[in-house]
Structures are given as C-alpha cells and as structure tokens.
C-alpha cells in the first residue's frame, strides 16, 4: 500500500462511506485524502460530445463518481464508488455538462451489482453495474469484449473523462473535462506499483513525466480506446505524479460479467 493512494470518489462521499468501506482505494485516512480531486491536465468538454458520460450523485444530486451508459438502463462504474451505497441513496444524471446544472435526465437506481469478489481497488475486481429506473435518451458507449485484449498495447492513446479536480488537493471541476493518456505496459506499471498491480484485473495509463491523470471525483468514469469503453477509473498513487500512472479496471476481464448484468 502506498502513502497517498487515490480513490477517485470525492472526499465528501469518502467520508460518508468510510466506516463501511475502509479499503485501500478509498485508501488512506480522510485527512490524507483531503479535498476532492477533476481530470488533471485536461480540457473542458460537454456531454453533447460524450453523451454516454453519466454523473453518479447522491440523492441531492451532488456528483461523487462517474459512469458510462452502455444501454438505455445500464451504467458501468467502479465497485469502490458503490461501497456503502444503496438504491435509495444514489441517482444517475445524464446529459448534464455542469455539476451545478439542472438540465438532463435524472434517474433513480433500481439495482446495484458489485463484483462479488470485490474487497478494495488494489485487490482488483473494481467493477459495478447500475440498473436505472428511467431509460436514458442518450447514445450509449460500446464496450470491449473479452477477446479484445489488443486495445491495451503500450503506447495506445486512451481518453479519460470526469468532473474530478484539476490538481491534486484542488477543487472539483464544475464542467466535464477530458484528456488523452497513453496506455502503459504491464511491466512498467508493475515497476511503479509492485504487487498492488494485478495485470489480469488492471491496466495503467499515463505519462512517465506525469502531468495528466484522473483524480478524486473521476472514479467510475471511462477509459476509452478508439471510442470503446476499455477501462474504468479506479485508483493510483497521488494524482498526475511522475512515475505513477493512473490505474484502471481492465474491462476485457470482466466483459462477460458486465454483459450478463446488461442483459438481466
């Protein structure tokens, strides 16, 4: 375990679920997690450009994680986002570019599926699927099949999205942000994270020099390769720190489980 492991769930949400979810990803003490953290080193964008990008909020519509719409009533997110949550405590908001907006479509959640083996993000299995009570009228994102492992070739450009903070220890972004990062080889990621990196369950993306990354508040959002959902924002050491790329759920490993939930 590392000194400032970042869960990408916002600090407010972390504090609310800390007792129920004292995991490595949510990670360290609330004082160490400090402020919520949006995409570091990115640029602003809109949900018109990325209509499948969902805000996951509390019942008062305060955004704390992201998610990806993969069918009209199914959203893929991170398991650690859902620890300690219930169907009554969560909302999903589509078509809302700004965290403080009032537009878009708000849905209650009728079912939360968390990978049954999930314990914390550094142990892998960091995937969850939400079933919505209201269909979302937005374009969905395709996601990888179990055989599409080639999307993780080192150097491949991936896109990240979120409302998290723009600097470590900063404040959350009001507007959706995006950035591109290269996929990192398994060997390089293992050099950074040691035994906490599980190649079967995780993939790393980021620059050796740092500077561009997801951070708290971006949890559960997509890692897109060629417009296809290939990963889920999961964890990492600090935010945009040199030598510590972001860690994402390797979705090919869990694709069949996700499909089972999407079709249920």
UniProtKB/TrEMBL annotation:
The keyword Oxidoreductase does not apply. Keywords: Disulfide bond, Hydrolase, Protease, Secreted, Serine protease, Signal. It comes from Streptomyces cupreus. GO terms for molecular function: serine-type endopeptidase activity. The keyword Protease applies. SUPFAM superfamilies: Trypsin-like serine proteases. This is Serine protease. One of its GO terms (biological process) is proteolysis.
